[in-house]
Amino acid sequence: MTGRMLLGVLLGMVLVPIILLTWLRFGNVPVAVTDPPLFQEKLLTGIPLHARIHREMKKSPVITPDEAALVSGAHIYSEKCAVCHGYHGKPSQTGGFMYPAAPPLWEDHHHNGTIGVSDDPPGET
After folding, report:
1. Which end of the chain has a smaller Cβ tally under 10 Å, C or N?
2. Per-residue pLDDT tens digits for 91-123
3. How far apart are the C-alpha atoms of 10 and 18, rounded to whole Å?
4. What span, in angstroms and rounded, lies between the C-alpha atoms of 111 and 107?
C-alpha cells in the first residue's frame, strides 16, 4: 500500500511540472490584454491585494480635511491618478483596458449611488 502511495506522489511530483511547462511552452497562457483572465485570477489577485491594503492602511487619518489639503490632493490626482481613473464627466481612455480595470472614481462605480471614494473609511484611499 505504501509503495503505491509513494509511486503516486512521485508521479505527481514529475507529471505536474511537465504538464505546467508544456502548457507554458505552447502559448496557452493568457498574456495579451485582449485575452480572458486566468481561471479565478480575480480571486487569486484580490485576496492578497486587499490583505496588503488592510495591513498598510493608516488607523487614523494623517491629513486634516482643510482647503489646502484638498487643493493639494486635487493637484496630485491630476498629475498621478487621472490618467487611469479619469475626471468627472470625462472617463479615462486607458483605465478600462487595465486588469483589473481602474474604476472611474468620480462616477457611480459601486452601483449603489455612491460617487467617488466617499464610501471608503479614512486612510483607505
Report:
1. N
2. 888 887 887 778 777 777 566 666 666 666 655
3. 13
4. 9
Angstrom distance (rounded) from CA 46 to CA 92: 22
Instruction: Estimate to the nearest angstrom the gap between the alpha carbon of 39 and the chain centroid.
Output: 15
Write 50-58 long-range contacts (CB < 8 A, 24+): 53/124, 57/123, 57/124, 58/122, 58/123
Task: Please calculate the CA angle 80-83-85 and round it to the nearest 5 degrees.
Answer: 95
**CA distances for 45 relative to 79, 100, 102, angstroms:** 27, 9, 15
Q: Which residues of the chain have a pLDDT value below 50?
A: none
Closest CA to 108 of 124, 123, 125, 89: 89
Residue with cell 509513494: 6
- Which residues have a Cβ under 8 Å from the Cβ of 1 and sit 6 or more positions away? none
Q: Is 0.70 topped by the overall pTM? A: no
Q: Please report, as a single letter, which amino acid is at residue 35.
A: D
